[in-house]
Write a structure and sequence with these properties.
2 helices, 102 residues, alpha+beta, 5-stranded antiparallel β-sheet, 26% strand, 2 domains, 5 strands, rod-shaped, SH3 type barrels
């Protein structure tokens, strides 16, 4: 009787371990695909980045690229002020055609 109880505990434990491993595997695969897609997106942004590009930062600030020097970008904001930022803070290049209202 006691051995069948321990056998049930062992089988239940193994099932739980297998379920946890399967869920962790699914999470890893989905997360890996998402990270790869984001990495490709930002790689494309940094390749297209050039002086004159209208950009948006991760915090919602908009500006125009004036100069690029390595990992640093000089950005002109609406007030005309030029700020120096990390080029990795740029989250999007704004397409002027998308912003025009008919």
């Amino acid at each position: 009787m006691a051995s069948s109880i321990w056998l049930n505990v062992l089988v239940t434990s193994l099932v739980i371990v297998v379920m946890v491993v399967v869920v962790a595997g699914i999470y890893y695969i989905k997360n890996h695909k998402l990270v790869a897609a984001k990495k490709a997106h930002f790689k494309q942004i940094h390749q297209k980045l050039s002086p004159g590009s209208n950009v948006m930062f991760a915090n919602g600030l908009y500006g125009t690229v004036v100069k690029l020097k390595g990992d640093i970008a000089d950005i002109r904001v609406k007030s005309g002020t030029i700020i120096e930022v990390s080029r990795y803070a740029i989250s999007e290049i704004i397409d002027e055609r998308k912003n025009t209202h008919a």
